[in-house]
Amino acid sequence: MSRHSEKNGPPTAQLGYTMLEMMIVVTIIGIMACLTIGAFQRIREQSASESLLTVLESLLGEARTTAVQSLSNVGIRFFERGGKVYARLYKDGDGDGVCSDDVARGTDRPVGPEVALSEDQSRVAIPDGATNDPAGKPLAGEDPVRFGRGDTLTFSPTATATPGSLYLSEGDGRSGWAVRVAGIDGRIRLWRFKHGVWSLIQPM
Asked: Which of 36, 122, 138, 167 has its CA 20 to 30 A from that of 191?
């Protein structure tokens, strides 16, 4: 018995070594779990934003293409209902552009269904900390959807558009996007807001 104890070491030493190993492993697993959860959250936020941006890109492309093909103004009306922002395409019925009064009268008719502009981690809102727009103008009190003097982005058959912006906030609100439309040529640019700075990503 004494030879066995000398050869293999005291049982208490084996137990102490195993507990230390377990503590190290548990610590490593905990750190990895925290990193994984953080990475997964960032992926979810990025995925939600990309999904919403894809929806917007599709709406913008459809409105622009329909306007050129039909030789009439086509507008995207943005509106809020139940705390969510929706969008819907309308075709100008009397040649004066897409406007609320004509929509109410049925003169400007819808083209396609309503589309909800929200995802699990992304929504229509100005990102927290964005005090200026991508051009450097103050954003205090601004509507996150503003085209001209209202909430309708209209494309004409000659490729002009209502100038303005639509903002997206993602995750905890400290980052987001801006979709900017130029009036003279209908050009659309995508801006990224991160770490308090706007950066031009690409034309849409």
From this structure: 36
Distance from C-alpha of 91 to C-alpha of 152, rounded to nearest angstrom: 12
Within 71-124, residue ranges assigned H as helices are: 100-105
- Where does residue 78 rank: exposed (0-12), middle (13-18), buried (19+ CB within 10 A)? buried
Alpha-carbon torsion angle 62, 68, 72, 74, nearest 10? 20
Non-local CB neighbours of 184 within 8 Å, separated by 6+ positions: 160
Could you report the per-residue pLDDT of 25-75, keeping only the tens digit for each?
555 555 554 543 344 344 445 556 788 888 898 999 999 999 999 999 999
118 φ/ψ sector (left φ>0, alpha ψ -120 to 50, else beta):
beta
Pairing verdict, β 74-81 and 118-119: unpaired
Q: Can you name the residues that pair with 91 across neighbouring β-strands?
A: 74, 109
pLDDT tens-digit readout, 131-143:
999 999 998 777 8
Q: Which domain holds residue 170?
A: 45-203
Q: What CATH code is carried by the domain that includes residue 181?
A: 3.55.40.10
